[in-house]
Structures are given as structure tokens and as C-alpha cells.
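Incident log entry.

Two folding requests arrived from the same account within the same minute. Monitoring flagged them as a possible duplicate submission, but the sequences differ. Recording both here for audit purposes.

Request one:
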Amino acid sequence: MQSKIHLGLFLGLVLMAVGGLSAQEDLIKPLPIKAVGDTLKAPDLSDLLRKNDTVRTDSLPPSASALMDQVRYTAKDYVRISQKDQKIYLYNEAEIYYQDTELKAGIIVLDYIKNEVYAGRIRDSLGNYTQLPYFKQGSNEVIPDSIRFNFDTEKAIIWNSRTEQQADLGAMGGDAMKVYAQRTKKENDSVYFLSEGKLTTSSDTINPDYYIRVRKAKFVPKKKVIAGFSNLYIVDVPTPIALPFAYFPLTTGRSAGVLMPTFGMDPDRGFFMQNGGYYLPLNDFVDLTVTGDLYSNGSYGFRAQSVYAKRYQYRGNFNFRYENLVTSQKGFDDYSRSAIYNIQISHSQDAKANPNARLSASVNLGSSQYYRNSLIQQNLPNTQVNNLSSSISYSRTFPTYPSVNVSLTATQNQNTNTDVVDLTLPTLQASMERIFPLAKRDGIKKGAIENINLQYNVNGRYGVRTTTDEFLTGAMFENGRLGAEHQIPIATNFKIAKFLSVTAGGTYQDVWTWETYPQRYDPELEQVVTDTIGGFDRYNEYSLSAALGTTVYGTFNFGEDKKIQALRHIVRPNVSYGFAPSFDQYYNEVINESTGVATSYTRFQGTPYGTPSQGRSNAFSFGLANTLEAKVRDKDSTKLEPKKIFILNSFNLNTSYNLEADSLKLSPINLTGGTTLLDNKMNINFGASMDPYAVDNTGRRINTLNINAGGGLLRVTSARANIGYTLSSTDFERDREEQEEEEQDPYSGSNYVANSGGRTDDLFGAANDFNRSAFEGRDSESVETPIFGTKIPWNLSLQYAVTYNNSAQQGDITNHSLMFRGNIELTPKWRVGLSSGYDFVGKGFTLTQFQFERDLNSFHLKFDWTPFGEFERWYFFIGIKANLLKDLKWENRSQPSNIR
């Protein structure tokens, strides 16, 4: 039965309700409510009519507590009005709606004089409480055991309330804060006062696996909880973790806040606090995270990270890391101090922002020993990084014909083993688009004449070679060298007999430099010395070339009823000819008077763009490229078209013949190739160099064919092979092709490792963020953990590499290693991982790392262990998964013993 109450029609609706109840008088059952009286006696209709008339003619103003809107209500079993108590009773699936307030419960009692409502639970046939009240006002929702609410003041008293506050700190689950209180007083729309409350992110609010007990608190929905004395309970057991007062932010979106540190003890550095700091969202596009470490012996670390992004414009990040490492104490023999730092910058511009201009940056520079000596666990896989490189580039295109592209690029390349740093500050690159002076711009170009085209390219750079000690000091510019190179390539192309493609052309090159380095004999030093002469100087050279090539297709059909229906072999042979005269005019001769030995040199030796070519070049080059593919019948019978697979992705042969050489005219034959096998799970790449000439007893090449010296037709001088193989449990599932693409392994931390110049396949270990879990995104409560599982997810990656060197008949294996990484989920909540490898040349294991992880519903547990080697260490972590309370954690770790 459903009705509507309005202030002017209230008595009339009561009359209708009473009339309806009189017909169901025999069906009404007494309610277990103390306030109910005379439940079976219907009110006197004449009295109600007389009261109704009196109200209509009353001249007094309406009461200030009158309802301001309609109240809609309904109930499944019955709605009963008590004139004596001036209340309305709704029983079983009762609902009331008033303005933005919604109330649902097993039983609702409405006092239409005081404009108050009471809602509670009811018992089912087994005596259990059901139909807990559901109270919603605006966007705030509360699920209590019972509630008392006043429509006029909008105040309420709530018993055993439960509410959920979604903080929108991430897309992963577990970020909602559940607030439970034995007694809650609603002061207004935005303020609640709690007594004996519990705060948790556990999905079970009745029996949570952990909660923070607050005695008294002020609760502002979607903003904050301010509490008095609070302490952490785990499985209803109090822990020593307590605070005299606490503040819990519930603001949606990003908000500033303190990042709690990790406490511990290090035998060399004393007590420490790590990774404490502050997070600050500067605006909608930029944020800043500042963290640091502090040790009692004086060591400290500082890190600043800023991430910025603007849709359709740009995105990037900036990272600065600095660590001052002190070992032992001053006065001790083992005392040492070192400072290490690292800077990373990444910036990319959206192509939609400006199609004619683009700025990009990828910077990774710092101390050579930063990754090896850093105390940050994430840097473990980067200890194998031997090279740091950076690039900052700005390019602009001027589209007017002929279009010109100009770019400025600053680069840095740092060898962490030798501490040598090469810089270009900057490199200027400008190129004009290819133009066809003898053809119409919008016409079809035919023949060799109309296809004549030319370009203009200029490249200029200022290069510096320095060391990490002199980097960013004035000394780094002492060896700076400036130069420029101009190129004008001219070419044409045409076909012969429809199948042969011919390309012919030449290149003119003009090289400028602002320093030259002539040589002379110094009688005092009795040796040849090199002088540095400042001032502009230049040299030019040119070359001619021609190339002939074609493509040959060979198809072998076996029939559509065969498993292998056809093979297709594609061969691309090519031959080219190159000629360049000798530019001996740029070379001189210096005589060492003490030895009488004369040496040829050029003053351009050591300039940024090298030296002019000495000796005429007149050579043919030969190349043969092959691919082999097959058409096979698809295993899926519903697919009518055959599936194409590659047997050989590439198989290439290259060599050259120098007509001007007086000996050793034929160059070694270079072979390269690659293929994929086992449904693209295995990648194979190989290469070799084969020399047709023999060597003497000293390992020097001689002008005698190897076959004439008693050997084979070709002598293998070097060879290499690289095999990668990935395998997982899903490969053995029948419908794996229909499964969704798997997400990147959360263990990998690939983005951080890739930005640091390391591998992205975790073969050198994983860069773990201990605050993140590999099980994120999975609903822990819905995952069953059977005693006997029929499916155990796992994955395995293998990388095998071998290099053979036989240039001087030494027959050495210079590199021979097997790297592997694997993960296995022993149960849906247990994951174990291992990454390692073995060096067969060095006869030892490479960096080995074990990873263990356990999903504990609201918590996650991690343990990483490097059991041996230079970087032996371990890490243990247990913490709350939810971003709201991720600072509630315990972390312990060993310290690396490799600090130098």
C-alpha cells in the first residue's frame, strides 16, 4: 500500500489510510515495539473529519516545524497509523523518501508531530536480524543497526553505523575507508561525531582482519576523520602502534600529506629513518614528492620527484636523487665518506600540441657508482648498467616548399666503468626536403632524367670528452671541439627491363673545423708532438655510387589439403659500386729525426668529423637478403584462410671487392639472420663473419686463400647467437588465444629500470616498489584457496647468449651465459619468483634474486633475497594494501656491503 502525505492533505490521507486498514483488520499482527498501543482499534472517522475541518478553518499561522516537501513511503506488509501516538508504523521492506533523504529498513516509525523518524531491524523466522536500515542523504550513505532522524533539524542519532568513503587514490581495490561506530551523532550534513569507532579498509566491516580503534572522533564525509587516542588492532588484538591523536584524510583526488618513514638499524650507519617525506600536488597538472633518509652516523639521502601531465599537450617527470654515504664513525680505520647522485628527466610532447615543433627529453646522468652503491632497493637490477645516456632534442619543421627540418640536440654518454663522459652541446641538424629540379612538382616522374633529385644537409656540433670528476666544472670545456659538415647528395633511379631497379648518384661533402692539429718534431723532447692551431679550416671530398637490385619470388604449392599448403621464398640480390678519389693533398709527412721514421698525418686528425679519405676507393659490394615463409592450415576449423608463419625472418649475406687494393681485395663475408619458433615464443638471432684468406703464425691475414693454405673455403673468424624463450602456464590452455592480453608483470618495475638504462625483462632482478603488490586489482575476498589446486599459474623467461672469436686462430668463447627469470603462484595468494643466470666463461652465477609475496587480504607481505655475490642483501615488508593507510607498515632490510 502506498500513499503521499502533504501538509494540506495530511488528514485526508489519514482518512483514506484508516479506511484501507479496516478491511485488513484481521491480518494485522502485534509489533514488538514498546511504543505501540491499541493496535486493532481503528480511529473514529467522525473525529478525524471534525479535526480535518478545524484545521482547514484555523486562522493561526502554520507551525515552524512543518514539512517543506512531500514525504513518500511504502511497506511490504502494512502501514499503520496510530492517532493516539500520532505516529505511522511501516513494517517489512519499509521505505521513506523526503527531499534528498532516503531511508530503508525492516521497520520504520514516523512521528508526524515532531517530524522525526525511527528505523530499525526486524527478526526473521529463525530469530536473526535482517533488513538493516539504509540511510542516504545527498551522497552520504550509512548502514546502521538503528537510526533516529529529525526532518526539521536534519540531526540524527545512529547506532552501530557503517559507512564507506571512497578516496579515489587509485583504480585498484582496497582504497575505500570503512567507518564503523557504536554510536554516531549527526550534527549536520557534513559533521558527524563518533563514539567507539573503527576505521579499516577491510571488506569485512563486521569482523575486519585489522582496524584502528578511535574512542571519540569527528567525521567529515569525503574529507577527514579527526580522532583522539587511537591504536591499531589486528584480529581484535591491540598492538603497540598508537597515537594520542590522529588525522585521516578522506579527500577525493590528490591531497598533500606526510609520507611515513621506515625505521631500522644498520651496523655501519646506526639507527635510520628511510623514505620519509612529503607529497604536495602543486596544481592539477604538477605534483612534487620529497623523501629522504637519515642515519645516526651522519649519512643521509634526499630525493625529489615531480610528475606532470597535460592532456593533448605534454607529459613527463623529473627525478633527483642524492645520497651522502658515511661508513663507520670518524676516528675509526674503516671510516669513509662518499657522495653519489642521479638525475632523470623524461619529457614527451603530444603530436596534437604542435605538428611543426616538438620538444623531447630523456636524461639519465649522475655518479658512475650511484646504482652500485645506492641504498635504495629499486636500484638493485640497475647495478648491471654500464652506460648512462641522455638526449634533449627540439625540432621544428618549416613546411613551405621546399620544407626544411631543423633540430637541436644535446646528448650525453657516460661509461660507468671507465668514468668517461662524451657530450655534444649541442648538435645542430638541418635538412631540406628532396627536390626534383627537372620534373614538375605535381607530375609523374619518368626516366632517369626526371628522377634526378638532390638534398642539402648540414650537421654541426660542439663535442666534449671529460670524466665524471670534471663533469659540470670549467675543466670539462678544455678539450671541447667544434665542427660542421655539409652534404649535398644527388641521385636518380630508374628500371631496366621492368624488373631491375637502378640507383645512381654522388655525394659532395664539405667539412669545417675551428681547430686543427699539425704535427712536428721537437728536438728538445726528441719526439713528434702535436700542436693545436685555432682558427677556421676546411676540407672537401666527394664520392660516386651506383646500385642494381631486384626481387625474386619463389612459391612452392603442396595443396590445400596438406598441413603445409605452400612455401614462399623471397630473394633480394643487389650489387653496388662505389668510387671515391684519394685526397692526398690534405696529408703531410713528419720525420722523427731520432729514429729516422717518416709518418703520414693530416692536420684534421682529431676533429669532430674525422679525416679526409686517403687512398682511392674503387669497390664492388654484394648482398643477398632472404626471407622464407609458409602457409599452414589453421587449427581452428572455422577459419577458412590459412595462417602465414615465418620460417626465416631474415638471412643476409654481404661482402665487397676492392679493385684498388694490391692484396686482400675480398672482404670477409658477413652473415646475419633471425627467426621465431614455437608460436613466436622463441626468438633466435645469429651472425658470423667468414674470411676467405688465411693467416700466418702470428695471426696476421696474408694474401693467400684459405683453401689454398690447406683449410676450408671460408674461415670463421667470429660468430654469435642469441636465443630468447618465454613460456607460461597459459600456453598449455586450450583456449589461450581467446584470453585477454596479460598485463605487465607487476614484479618487473620495468619503467623505472628502462629509464635507468637497464633491461626490462627482470633478468638482472626486479625493481620492486614494496608499497605495491603483485596482486593489486584482484579482489582478495573472492579468491578461493583450495587445498588441492588444479591450476598453478607460472611463467618462465630464458635468454642464452654465446660469442665465438677466431680472428687469429685462437678459437675463444668470449661470452657464454644463460639468464633466466620465473614466477609461480603456489596458491592464489602465494607468489614466488627467481631471477638469475650462469656465466660459463667466468664460471659463476650472475645477480641472483628470490622474490616471495603473500596476499593477506588487507595486507601484503614481501620478501626479497639476494643470497650471495657482491650485492648480497635481503628485504622484508608487510603493510596495508590500501593507499589510504599504506604508511601503516613494517619494513626491515639488510644493508649492502659493497660501498666503495
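Request two (distinct sequence, not a duplicate):
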Amino acid sequence: MAAWSVSLVLPAPALSNSIAPVPAPTDTVRPAPQEMPLEIPAQPLREALTSLGHQTGLQILFSPDLLADRQSQSLSGRMDPAVALSILLSGTDLAFDMRDRVVTIGRMQENPGFLPGLAVEGRPMSAGQAARSPTPDRSVGKTPIPVEDRPQGLSIVTGEELDQRDVQDINGALAYSAGIRPIDYPGGQGAIDVFVRGFRQSSESVMLDGLRSGYNPYGIEYEPFGVERLEVLKGPASTLYGAMPPGGAIALTSKRPTASPFHRLQLQSGSHDRRQVTADLSDRFDAEGTLRYRLTVLSRRSGTQVDRTPDDRLYVAPALSWSVGEETDITLLASYLDFRKMGAEQSFPASGTVQDNPYGRLDSSLFLGYPGLSSYRSRTLSAGYDIRHALAADWSVSQTLRYSHSRVGYLSSWAASGLLEADRLYRFGLQDRPKTSATLLVDSRLQGALVTGPLRHSLLAGIDHGRYRAHETRRNGTVVDALDVFDPVYGGPYGWDTILARDLTDSIRQTGLYAQDEIAAGNWRLTLGGRLDWSHTGSVGRLSGGPLLERTQFDRAFNKRAGLAYRFEDGLTPYAGFSTSFQPNSDSDVQGRPFSPSRGTEWEAGLRYRPAGLNGLVSLSLFRAVQRGLTTADPDNPGYSLQTGEVLSRGVELEGKAALGDGTELTAAYSYTDAQVTRDTPYPGEPDRTGKRVASVPRHAAAVWLRRQIEEGAAGGLTTGIGLRYVGATYNASNSVRVPSYLLVDVSLGYDLGRLGPALDGAGIALTATNLFDRRYFSPGFYENSVFYGNRRAVLATLSYSW
């Protein structure tokens, strides 16, 4: 054969040897199955094998002539390296020989002793069976490409990281990523509240399994135990996903059936009388693994740091994957989520929290609601499918669909402002706002690869459509007596309005046509994309008993994206990109004319570095983003708006992850964000926000997480982790209230009980503590003179058993 090419040799845990039960003329030896998290996008096969070497520590030998112009499939999830090799080589005439940690790639007909796939119960797995990735790639880009080639910032949180930190909500999942500012809200706000690059992200910017999560923020909740992977694509993502803020897209991937059987049970107890049990089970129905299932279940009863506030939930998510022949994969996904929280708004007064109060400090456990009339319960049922069919050569078609129905009961306690009367009296009102909604989402895609001269194209074209319909009523109520926040006495007289404040049926229809071409030429990578969207929104009903309201609005927008990257041989990749976004406005001016969508643009440049000999990646991003056409007050017509608002955000982000060897892993992030209002028109007597910093967004933020897994010695089986999170000072919208910076410490400690004896194999225990030193911290609240209390110290103990 020709001269051999060798992948990088990286530190990795030693793999024991065993004879694979595959009949062969030679003794082919491969490591015993040892699953590990792997992430390799579709790309040239040579680059995919090199990436596999980076992630597993395997030394992979191959002839460059064998891999010319060959493309690989994508793979994502936990799997045995031999399964990953089978996936990457499927559809080719290539096979592999694995001895210890050295892999040799050759032609199958020339090397009959090489493995075409992984042995399963004494029989070789066919290439088609091996090609089914246990968790198909659901990256934000829809056509997965190597992280280095993406011309924009990206943060990835794997399922393994979620387990290591025992993440309890999406805010916790994002806490160690650069440029992302989660707003902690004890008791649970339901709707996601996260700032990305200075822009507030709503539920419509959250993707679940490649589809928009929905349009109903109060009916949507995300259970991290059901998430396999989380990604944040920073900067405008409208070219692939349509309407959303310019900060970026947050993409979640649900747990799916795995290639190898997997079973885990967990019992958890901890702060606030928490009691939780979970089950995560995956197996196959047949010996070949063509039909596989996964069942994810969570049941919890718990209090929170806020008095009279539960955090109860039931989550059930079955999934079924079916490989139909060699070309078609079908995955059915369903979930049911029932959660119960509080309905109190919990916007604490600034006085007594971040400002002095003559009566002292407010307690973080203070309940700012009316017992029995402050509750929040949501029940959501969803079901859908993901179908992928391979066509000739490197082309495939796929379709993803999900239908969901949500029923929300929301008795809210809310305040008109954060100001106290006589420095201690908090006055609030009530609102009963039940809501039911139904959402249908579908995305159909054609993707493939072709070569035109020296250019290699990864093409994507698709159409997605969303329908949403919801009915909501709102009835306001009055609580007669104010609440003494320093000596609360609950109850007292209250009353409900006889006329509904709102009785509306809302509908949304959105359709988008999109196309993208990712072009490789030598070491250059060029990404071009465009999308045309049509949006139709309507409302029918009455406000405050008034006349019948019928409002319809049509919007159309075209968005584009372009990016360029160059991959140096030493692992350095500079890139630059430009992208746009749009977000519909439901408001109208004094003459009743609907506003056009707000528009966002961003320029970005960055640098990624994957050091030779180190399993790690460091990313540096510089960006400038503007959102124009935001609604502001009409000073000449109170109660109406103008479309003159503008926000500018500029910043720097630095993020890195690395396996340092000897079982040590490091995650670090830093961000500088200068987000400010550049145009505003206030009402007379109200402050002009022009030139003010955007509320809740700190200039400086940093985080670091260090984890060590000890394999040998007296401490063998012990895993430790420690994290630091720093968030700089923030302000309210008018910048009149300053919220101080804070530094939090998180720790984790785990032990493999199997080290104590064979009878405990598969058992483990873990202890985690967030905000270990119980630091008091705050975030700006809903109103000018209000704040949210941060999460106090929480300690959780988890007993798990896997088999």
C-alpha cells in the first residue's frame, strides 16, 4: 500500500484487550467495549478519522489514497469507538483492524481479517446497522460541520457535563458558557429568561430536536434530565430557523435510543425536602438492533427556598427507533410534562435587598403572594417523529414533525412596581389567566454533497412550517390590604373584577424556505445561506369587555448569512461572518398600522485553536450586533408606540474545554459585553434610556469548572469537581438601580461504589452543592425598583445504579 497517514495520538484511558467473536482468517483484536461521548459532524472522511483520534486517543493508520474525496456520516452521543469507526466507514469498501489502541484502515477485499463492523452477540454487525448513530446529530446548523469551520460563536454542553454538574434547569446548563447570562428565578418562572450577547432570548429562540420549541412561553418548560445535548449558536440564526432575536438559538436534543443497552436508576434527596426518582432505560427489541427503545422518567416532590412554593414535576418521555432496511431510519418521540410551581411574581423591592432599608434586609424565603391564589401548573403532551432516508450517493431526505398540546392554570400575584409604602408595605394584585394551546411544527429537508472541480459542497434545502392556536382569558383581582414584608400576615379581603381583562384567541402561521451551501476548497471553508419567511398572526376576542377585536398581520422577511474560515495545519482556524435576523412586532401605531418586524445584523470575527497533542478546543470571538425597529413609547400619544428603538451590543468571548490528562478536565469561559440602548423615545416625565446599559447584562462575566476522576490508588473511583462563576454588576432599564457583582462556588463529589466489592458493581453515589458558601446575590427584576433573589445554597445527594 502507499505511504501511511497517522492521526494524532492523544491521552486517553487505557482500554483492555479482548478477542472479538468474529470469524476471520487472522486474529483480529479490539478493545473491550467502552462507551465515551463522541461528536463528529459530517465532513471529509480523512478529517473525521483525525477527529476520532482526537476524541478517543486511538492511533489511526490509513493510506491517503484510500480516502480521497470520501465523505463521512455524522455521529453524536456515547458509544464504543469501534461502533464509531463502523459508522464512519459505512457505505464504503473500507474496514478496520484494531489492536490495543492502534487502528489500521484498509480495503475490505484486500484485508479479509479486518472488521466490517462491531460484533454483536457473536455475529458481525452489517455496515447499515452500524451506521445508525445512537443519537443522531441535531446541531443548530442542521448540516453538521466541524466546530472549527463554523463562522460564528458556539457553545456546546454535552449530556455528560449535565450529569457531572447534576444540572437541575436550563439556566444551570448554560452557567459555564461564554456570552450567556441566565436569570436565576427561585421558584421557577416557566418561560426561559436568558440573555445571549446582550439580547433577551424568548421561548421562540429555543429549538427542541431541530424544531422550534413552541410559541407559548408559559406552557413551555424544559426538563434537563431528558436532554442529551445542548448547543447555543450565537448570533442571528434566522437563516435556518426564522423569527428570533439576534442573540442566537438555543438547541436542545432529546434523549434517544442508544446503540448499546443502557439502564440507570437514581434516587435523590436534598435541600428544601427534595425527593426525586429517575429512570433512564434503553435497549433493543431484536438481536440486530434494528428496533430500539428508550424510556426516560422523572418524578419529584420538592419545596424551594421560597415559602409556600413547590417544585413538583412528572416527566415521561418514551422514544422508539426503527431501522428499516439499509437506507431508512424512523424515530418516534413523545413526552408528557406536568409541573407545579408558584404563581407569585417574586419581584423583590430594591429597598431591603440591594439598597438600604431602615427596617433591615428582606429574607430570601419571603413569599410575595396570596396563599391559595398564587399557583402555576402546566401540563404538556407532545408527540412526533424524525424520518431520514438515504438516497443515491451522498444525498438524503428527512422530515421532523412534532405536535404538542398544553394546558396552563396560572393564578398570578403581581405588583405594579417595586416601591414599598412606608418602607415596608408591598401592594400587589391578582390575575387568573388560564390558557390552552396547540402547536404543530414540521421541517422537511434535502441535503447532500457534491464536487464541482476543486470545490466540495455540503448542500441543504428545506421548508418548515408552524401553526399555533391558543385561547387565554385574564381576570384581574384586588387584594385590599398591603403585605408587611418584615412581618407578613397573609389572607385578608380580596375581590375579582366582573369583566374579563382579556378573552382572546391567538393564531400564528409561519412558513420558511431556506437553503445553505458549505463549500470546502483546500483549507478554505465558505458558508452561504438564505431564507425567505412568511408570517401570519391573528387575534380574535375582547379586551376589558369592549367591542369584538379582530386583528390580522402579515409579515415577510428575507435573511442571509455568509462566513469564511481557513484551517491551518497546526490547528489554528480564523473565521469571519455576517448574518441577519428578524422578529415580528405584534404592536401597532396610533393609526392602527401594524409595525414591520425588527431587524438584526451582526458582524463577527474569531479564532479557534485545537492544539496538537491535547484533546481540547479554545475559541475567541469578537462581535458587533444591532437590533433596529424595536417599539418604544409614543410621547405624543400615551398608550401607543413608535418603531424607533435600537440596541447595540459589542463584545469579546473566550471559551475553552480540554482534557488535561490523568483524568482531569477543564472548562473555562470569559465574556465582555457592552450592550446599550442607542435610540429611545420615552413618555414625558420618564427617563430617556438612550445611552443606558441594557438591563440585566453585565459587562464582565467569567466561569471555570475543573473536574478530576481518580482511577488508581487509595482514592480510586473518586470524582471531584469545583466551579467558580463570576457575574459583574448589572443595572435596571433606566440604570437607576445598580445590582452588585457576585462570585459563586459550586462543588461535586462522586464515588464508584463498585470499588468496594463486586456486589456493588454499577452503583455510585454523588454529592453536589451549588452556591456552596450561600452567597446572597440578585438580578434586576421586572420593574424599575425591583430585583430577583438569586438561588441560595442547595445540596443534593444522588444514589445511582447502572447495568
